[in-house]
Write a structure and sequence with these properties.
CATH class of the largest domain: Alpha Beta
Number of domains: 2
Distance between the termini: 32 Å
Number of strands: 17
Strand order of the largest sheet: 1-6-7-5-4-8-9-10-11
Number of helices: 13
Largest sheet: 9 strands, mixed
CATH architecture of the largest domain: 3-Layer(aba) Sandwich
Structural class: alpha/beta
Radius of gyration: 22 Å
Length: 435
């Protein structure tokens, strides 16, 4: 970290200007995220990548996140991290005091846009964060408000919340000037749900996420030497899985794929790359326990290698070291998955689940229209929750190095559509047009 700077400092970065129905002002973007590095999680990494890419374009960017495992500070401390000013408030569950902290910071830092990075688990599954746009629209009417839905899962809120849960999710869009989704399915679902309540859905836009992990292993990386040091023989088939385990990610199918390879006489290992559970969702621990119990029962525990949390360069090295990456999402492959985009960016042979049928929609002027994920070109696609199909796919790929090489090339070509420079450009354009 660089030098500490307070919220009232005047020696801030100056960048492009945006108009807010008044004289042009310096573009100042305050991102609010339930998690941020060193927190582990896709939203944490996404927010960092977006913040740094916007800062690289010359915008003044700050992030408000949570200070985990520390005593409550007297005031928010703003520290420069890679050209981004990071403020950490004291409540990891984002209670009512956090809303007040966001309001004070938006005013004192003189933000033009406050952009909420929404995922229910990252904000403790509680109610307060869902009221942030509504509160700020009244307290700071000149402030422009945006929300990115990293998914549309409903929060817990409180016992017997019932129909309030989906309404709380939709209220974020209703009281924001801009509502972003990361994939076409969520884009259409959000528009339909808003329309069903008679709420304005015209403020939407689709902006895909990018890979949170660059293809950048340590200097001098040698794949054969790296595998040997990890105990992987040249003929070992290393299945790589990247991402936290949760109920939607097909952990039991991974074990089935490993078992299929070993039953076919192949020396196979399943490499679980990175941390097992994230900082936000407590239900992941139960999924991990069930996975470990199943591995023991199936006699596969010794064939599962856990790397633990690693620096980005080491994760990149492991993605390259794997013979194929296996990502059996229960709800189908989707471009909202950072782990999928990391696999594509690394040009790795990939086995994943068939995306949900694309919705019938016409992209609007503010919507990106990402290219499709094509079976046999970018990855091998299997029906969700089909253990036999997944096992057959990993066997086919293990037996066909030419197919593996072709899929790797296709994956890397597809990944070009999800670069962070393009994502930052789309955000900056939306801020300007909707300002």
């Amino acid at each position: 970290m660089a030098n500490c700077c307070g919220t009232g400092s005047d020696d801030r970065a100056r960048g492009p200007t945006l108009a807010h129905g008044r004289a042009a002002v310096t573009a100042r973007i305050l991102l609010v995220s339930g998690e941020y590095p060193p927190d582990e999680g896709g939203v944490a990494d996404y927010t960092r990548c977006l913040a740094e890419a916007l800062a690289a374009r010359g915008l003044a960017v700050a992030v408000l996140c949570a200070r985990r495992g520390a005593q409550k500070p007297e005031a928010l401390d703003g520290r420069i991290e890679n050209s981004v000013t990071v403020f950490r408030q004291a409540d990891p569950r984002w209670g009512w005091n956090s809303l007040a902290a966001a309001r004070r910071l938006a005013r004192s830092w003189r933000a033009d846009w406050l952009h909420l990075q929404y995922q229910a688990a990252a904000f403790g599954l509680g109610l307060p964060i869902h009221l942030l746009p509504w509160r700020l629209s009244r307290a700071l009417p000149a402030l422009r408000l945006a929300v990115t839905y990293h998914d549309l899962r409903e929060p817990y809120l409180f016992p017997k919340a019932g129909r309030l849960r989906p309404a709380a999710v939709l209220a974020l869009a209703r009281f924001s000037h801009l509502a972003l989704t990361t994939n076409a399915a969520d884009r259409v679902t959000l528009a339909q749900e808003l329309a069903a309540r008679g709420w304005d859905g015209t403020r939407q836009a689709l902006v895909p996420i990018g890979s949170n992990l660059p293809d950048a292993p340590p200097a001098g990386f040698d794949r054969a030497a790296f595998r040997a040091a990890a105990g992987l023989a040249p003929d070992t088939v290393a299945l790589g899985y990247f991402g936290f385990l949760n109920a939607s990610k097909g952990g039991m199918l991974l074990l089935g794929a490993l078992a299929a390879l070993r039953a076919a006489g192949r020396d196979a290992r399943l490499v679980m790359i990175g941390g097992a559970v994230g900082a936000s969702d407590p239900t992941n621990s139960a999924t991990l326990a069930a996975f470990n119990a199943a591995a023991e029962t199936m006699g596969l525990a010794e064939a599962v290698l856990w790397t633990g949390h690693l620096p980005a360069a080491q994760v990149s090295a492991w993605l390259r070291a794997a013979d194929q990456l296996v990502l059996p999402y229960g709800d189908g492959a989707s471009y909202r998955r950072g782990s999928l985009l990391a696999a594509l960016a690394h040009g790795r042979p990939l086995v994943t689940t068939t995306p949900a049928p694309p919705p019938s929609w016409r992209p609007g002027p503010d919507d990106a229209d990402p290219p499709p994920l094509v079976d046999g070109v970018h990855a091998l696609l299997c029906p969700a929750d089909d253990a036999a199909a997944l096992g057959a796919a990993v066997l086919r790929l293990a037996a066909n190095p030419d197919l593996a090489a072709s899929l790797g090339r296709g994956a890397r070509e597809l990944a070009v559509a999800f670069g962070w420079e393009a994502i930052a450009e789309r955000h900056a354009g939306l801020y300007e047009r909707r300002g």
